[in-house]
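# nightly structure sweep
# worker-07 picked up a monomer target from the shared queue
# config: single-sequence mode, recycle default, output format = structure tokens
# input follows
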Amino acid sequence: MTGIGRWGVRGAVLGLGALWWWAVVRLVVVPEAGVLEAAVAAGGWGLSVLPVHCVPKAQASGVLGSGRWRRVWGAGARGVVSRRGEVRG
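# output follows
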């Protein structure tokens, strides 16, 4: 994004951030704050916990194999399952 598009996005982010802070401060300071402020504050918080840094499972570091849990539960009392999914015991 260049030029006007970049400023439009920045303006939207700043405006929504200011709106969220207004709602939070109003909830804390004003005794008559109501549902609108609570909804804006909860919605902003909900957006902040979205998993925006997710990657596909195949690209994730330290990913477990797709059948690992099946092997673990299948082993049950038969023995101990190593990290590589081998049943020992």
